[in-house]
Amino acid sequence: MIIVAFRGTEARQIRDWLSDGGAMMMPCPGGKGLVHPGFHQALEAAWPQIRQAVQDLRDRGRSLWFTGHSLGGALAMLAAAYDQALEGRVFSFVNNNDIVAQLPPAPVYAHVAAERYIDSRGKIHDKRPGGLLGGLADKARGHLADPLAPGTDGMADHAIARYIAHLTHVTG
Q1: Inter-CA distances, 52 with 18, 48, 49, Å
Q2: Per the database record, which ranges form the Fungal lipase-type domain (predicted)?
């Protein structure tokens, strides 16, 4: 198994903030839709080394996994989009009210993969709750989970520790 893990935004790295900030879309080099230019440039800077390392290891018949959180999740999605063998086997996990996963909002931006939604109780679903009431009820449950910290659920749900806790609970 080959795991390529991309780190998320580091608060003290100005280059990360510049990568996150350039949200005007540009044509994807592979001709498959549009891509966030900051994410594209960040991946392109590392892609030659990643591609070579993966090619060296993949010759041994190993499976390939891309993963990341926040900025790293965006880079993992782009890297997977570059690998045709992964088409149809790419998933994005979104934790309830994670604010970062909602920016920029639809229809300006859409993920390239099937979304897996982690509800306010930590259960993973193949899609977000259906209907207006189901979706709003789950979002409200998440926002009201910590009455001593109103309005913080969007950032709290973005924390890597919450993703790890939910995914660890499901996988055992």
Answers
A1: 26, 6, 5
A2: 3-82
